[in-house]
Specification:
Largest sheet of chain B: none
Mean pLDDT of chain A: 87
Low-confidence stretches of chain A: 258-262
Helix content of chain A: 25-40%
CATH class of chain B: Mainly Alpha
CATH architecture of one domain in chain A: 3-Layer(aba) Sandwich
Strand order of the largest sheet of chain A: 7-8-9-3-10-11
Radius of gyration of chain A: 24 Å
Structural class of chain B: mainly alpha
Shape of chain B: flat
Order of helices and strands of chain A: EEEHEEEHEHHHEHEHEEHHEHEEHE
Number of helices of chain B: 9
CATH superfamily of one domain in chain A: P-loop containing nucleotide triphosphate hydrolases
Mean pLDDT of chain B: 93
Largest sheet of chain A: 6 strands, mixed
Distance between the termini of chain B: 49 Å
Number of strands of chain B: 0
Strand content of chain B: under 5%
Low-confidence stretches of chain B: none
Order of helices and strands of chain B: HHHHHHHHH
Largest interface: A-B, 32 and 25 residues
Shape of chain A: globular
CATH architecture of chain B: Orthogonal Bundle
CATH superfamily of chain B: MetI-like
Radius of gyration of chain B: 21 Å
Helix content of chain B: over 70%
CATH topology of chain B: MetI-like fold
Strand content of chain A: 25-35%
Oligomer: heterodimer
């Protein structure tokens, strides 16, 4: 495995002091690899925004080490003092690790083109060259024709596209997305996520996505960390976390309003089936009926399609006949990438 | 009617033209100079405030204190109190020249607060975005705060101009010249009430024009409205 592009060790952030102190982040360890799309998910107040803002030092951690692209932004001295990179050096680093925001944060008195030129103006790129690159970037995000428009004339999705073009202007290695789609409707969210995925492929830019929506993680992330109460509850490949959530925090996020068995009548024979990444279009229930002649009842389902693979859980009501039920269960268990367990009932 | 007007104009036309001219000079010069001092002060207040881009408790405290002192001195008192310094600065404490230093000293802290208010309306997220792109504090002031706040700064400009106009009338009481001094010398001291009312009308027209022009200007440059 190559050198991680973002390396965080023992990172803590405390707001305030004494009795009113809030531990927003508590001893976080995290490694993000170059070129991946890494998700950080958590409920409101979990500390995910603080964590991502530590990655470019918009927020200064109370203690811990942050290394971005081989450069130390924060570290602990041998005597235990917390040190940070100088302001001047930080400004250089920030050209390599840019950010997009929930509120877009465009300059309202500048045209889209001038907004994209802005980071290049900051580091002294000649105006003609900046303009040319800004035009290319607007084309890349599909807003070539809006170059002369002002942000107030754009929709939310278009504003975020301009913000993405602006964030890419300095050819960053890392793009941080702080709830970048939370203010957008589902369709627009999908199109922005597609764009991020596309840019990740085309430019190789590492993308860090902060979100409270599992669907965002599913759609684009390769790996995910689940943040809960300022600590990382679980981290790993999205598929793995999704199919075997081991912590409460993970379960809450993976099965939102999850499949609950309590609402079904006592005596129902049921089996909980987990799909762990088989092909999404494998018709399990239909083939069960055809191959075994057993009809099952779908009591609840929460399945998702991630990169063409099926994930999620389904709760099936089995026939009353014990033989039929046993046949169905063994059939389900024989399928690839599917696990099944019988469910106890407590009404 | 017409004869009355032309007779009035024959008597006082020159006085009114001269007074209007003096008022204009005082207002324009004082406003420009007050902004030369007030804008950096207002910017410094925003930059050094606790949530600012370069927080500095000491400097913020001292600047805030200076501005508050300047704002708490009534213009009429400041005008008289600093006369010796005014004489030292511009050679005289009367006339248009003598009025400029107290007008500027009084208006600059007012302008600083107006600028501070306008800049504080700039979305903190936009400032943060600029920081995240590696903008220096000076770049943030020049490329984010001032341009983003411009429509609001222009509207504040109208308030500053009208306030300074009111000050010039007070300065007129101690011989600064301008429309205010005409109203007092002719209108009040010599009992020519018609002339006093004419200066009042002139002042009203002046304020209306200033407000209209600044409103138009602010709307014209504000790209959020399009």
């Amino acid at each position: 495995m190559s050198e991680p592009i973002i390396q965080i060790q023992n990172l803590s952030k405390v707001f305030g002091s004494g009795e009113t102190a809030v531990h927003a982040l508590d001893q976080i360890d995290l490694e993000i690899q170059p070129g991946e799309i890494f998700g950080i998910i958590g409920l409101s107040g979990a500390g995910k925004s603080t964590l991502v803002r530590c990655m470019n030092l918009l927020e200064r951690p109370t203690s811990g080490t942050i290394v971005v692209n081989g450069q130390h932004l924060a570290w602990v001295e041998e005597d235990g003092r917390q040190s940070f990179i100088s302001e001047r050096e930080l400004r250089q680093v920030r050209r390599n690790i840019t950010m997009i925001f929930q509120g877009f944060n465009l300059l309202m008195q500048r045209t889209c083109l001038k907004n994209v030129c802005f980071p290049m103006e900051l580091c002294g790129v000649p105006a003609a060259e900046a303009r040319k690159r800004a035009e290319e970037l607007l084309d890349l995000v599909g807003l070539k024709e809006k170059a002369g428009a002002y942000p107030a004339q754009l929709s939310g999705g278009q504003k975020q596209r301009v913000a993405i073009a602006r964030a890419l202007a300095t050819n960053p290695k890392v793009l941080l997305c702080d709830e970048a789609t939370s203010a957008l409707d589902p369709t627009t969210t999908t199109s922005i996520l597609e764009l991020l995925k596309d840019l990740n492929h085309k430019l190789g830019v590492t993308v860090v996505v902060i979100t409270h929506q599992m669907s965002v993680i599913e759609e684009i992330c390769t790996r995910v960390a689940i943040l809960d109460g300022g600590v990382i509850a679980e981290q790993g490949a999205v598929e793995e976390i999704f199919s075997h959530p081991t912590t409460d925090a993970a379960r809450r996020l993976v099965y939102p309003g999850g499949v609950s068995v309590q609402q079904y009548p006592a005596g129902t024979h049921a089996v909980r089936v987990a799909f762990n990444g088989g092909t999404a279009y494998q018709p399990l229930i239909a083939s069960l009926a055809i191959d075994c002649g057993v009809k099952v009842n779908i009591l609840g389902a929460d399945t998702r399609n991630i990169d063409g693979k099926a994930f999620g859980t389904m709760l099936l009501g089995l026939p009353d006949d014990p033989n039929d039920a046993a046949r169905a269960l063994s059939y389900i268990r024989s399928q690839p990438n599917v696990t099944a367990e019988e469910v106890e009932y407590h009404v | 009617m017409f004869e009355t007007i032309s007779a009035f104009w024959a008597d006082y036309g020159n006085v009114l033209i001269e007074g209007t001219w003096e008022t204009l000079i005082m207002v324009v010069l004082s406003t420009v100079l007050a902004y030369v001092i007030g804008v950096p002060l207002g910017v410094a207040l925003i930059v050094t405030q606790p949530q600012g881009i370069r927080p500095h408790k000491g400097l913020y405290g001292v600047l805030g204190w200076i501005v508050n002192i300047g704002r708490s001195l009534p213009f009429a008192i400041l005008l008289v109190a600093i006369m010796p310094y005014t004489r030292f600065l511009v050679g005289t404490a009367i006339g248009v020249r003598g009025a400029i230093p107290p007008l500027v000293i009084s208006a600059a802290p007012f302008v600083a607060r107006m600028v501070e208010t306008s800049l504080s309306e700039v979305d903190a997220g936009v400032v943060e975005a600029a920081q995240s792109m590696g903008a220096s504090p000076l770049q943030i002031v020049r490329k984010v705060y001032l341009p983003e706040a411009m429509p609001s700064l222009v509207l504040g400009g109208a308030i500053s101009v009208v306030t300074i106009l009111a000050y010039t009338a007070i300065a007129g009481m101690v011989g600064a010249g301008g429309l205010g001094s005409i109203a007092i010398q002719y209108g009040h001291n010599r009992g020519i009430t018609s002339l006093m009312w004419v200066t009042v009308v002139f002042l009203i027209i002046f304020v209306q024009i200033v407000q209209w022009v600044f409103n138009w200007w602010s709307k014209r440059i504000d790209k959020r409205l399009k």
